[in-house]
Amino acid sequence: LTILGIESSCDETAAAVLRLEDGKVTLLSDVIHTQLEEHAPYQGVVPEIAARAHAEIADRTVAAAMREAGIGYDALDGVAATSGPGLIGGVLVGMMTGKAIAQAAGKPFIAVNHLEGHALSPRLGGDCAFPYLLLLVSGGHCQFLEVRGLGQYKRLGSTIDDAVGEAFDKTAKLLGLGFPGGPAVERLAKTGNPKAFDFPRPLMNRPGLDMSFAGLKTAVARAAAEAPLTEERLADLCASFQAAVCDVLAGKARRALEAFDPGEGESLRFVLAGGVASNKAIRTALEAEAKAFGGELFAPPLRHCTDNAAMIALVGAERMAAGGIEGIGDLGAGARPRWPLDEASATLDPAYA
Ligand code: ATP
Ligand code: MG
Ligand code: FE
């Protein structure tokens, strides 16, 4: 199966061509355009600007991916595009582009849940089999899920306020570090003292897998206001913030790993996915937790942690291979600003199209 994938749910315009043959994944192309310059002056993603930027380069991005793959549209078996959740203007651009190509080429269209893309992203590497315990940490989401197979997602716990990526972004903004915040905070944290500030570890010792990060950001704001922000203080604040995040995620991961039963004869796989999964300190902390339980941590390469189209094409390919997409596919599907991953299984139901 050869699938064109399109991603446009936030501030990345991306297109990729992926081949899935006998369970083996080959990426023929993987183009990502990040709208950094467009949003930088506002220190955050502006939905209207994002939608326009997607509209301006979506066609060229797809053309580049096809050129790089060295195939024509007739060689495709389907076209997959992110259909939610995300900023609706951008989602519409990607969906319309995908639907137009699918119709013109006479191929099925596959409406993909962006979170399912993140959830399956470690499978781009080819060695991460089902089932697995998943920690999805991105700009808009923070949740533990049990992944039993394609379309089988059970949410075990989520943040009750901010997502982790959001906490990184807001912390960076209040410290004047620019956007996106994650990479900036991580860079500064490297030279700081993680014990300089004793920030809270919200909900860490409560039972269950729900998390909370809004209070942590407030604590950083309060500490930052206490004295002038020298280079050293800035680094200490970042390091202490990141250490608190690591502790909370590791503590909850311990709980989740304890409760997760992979089933008879299955090894224990723990997956870390989403933009925040590119954070080295978090990766290291969670790798240690997985090892402590005799398991293995799977996290995609950095390029596939943040938004990309390869993961969207992979969902399309896996769904098609499973037999859920026939004829014109999901051509009737609409854009969904909200679309919890637990409901992604609905797209396997032919009645959905
Ligand atoms: P969602 O997937 O929930 O819809 P999104 O698509 O905007 O949200 P992603 O692209 O998966 O999110 O991830 C972007 C987020 O990841 C941003 O909040 C960014 O700050 C964070 N991030 C990126 N790199 C790092 C890093 N090195 N450390 C911490 N956070 C990071
Ligand atoms: Mg982004
Ligand atoms: Fe994302």
UniProtKB/TrEMBL annotation:
For this record, the Gene Ontology CC terms, alphabetical, are: cytoplasm
Q: Taxonomy-wise, where does this protein's organism fall, top ranks first?
A: Bacteria, Pseudomonadati, Pseudomonadota, Alphaproteobacteria, Hyphomonadales
Q: Where is the Gcp-like domain?
A: 27-313
Organism field: Hyphomonas chukchiensis
Catalysed reaction(s) here are: L-threonylcarbamoyladenylate + adenosine(37) in tRNA = N(6)-L-threonylcarbamoyladenosine(37) in tRNA + AMP + H(+)
Supply the InterPro entries for this chain.
ATPase_NBD (IPR043129), Gcp-like_dom (IPR000905), KAE1/TsaD (IPR017861), TsaD (IPR022450)
Question: In the UniProt record, does the keyword Glycoprotein occur?
Answer: no
Q: Which co-factors does it depend on?
A: Fe(2+)
Name the UniProt record assigns to this protein: tRNA N6-adenosine threonylcarbamoyltransferase
Its encoding gene is what? tsaD
Question: Can you provide one Gene Ontology molecular function annotated for this UniProt record?
Answer: tRNA N(6)-L-threonylcarbamoyladenine synthase activity
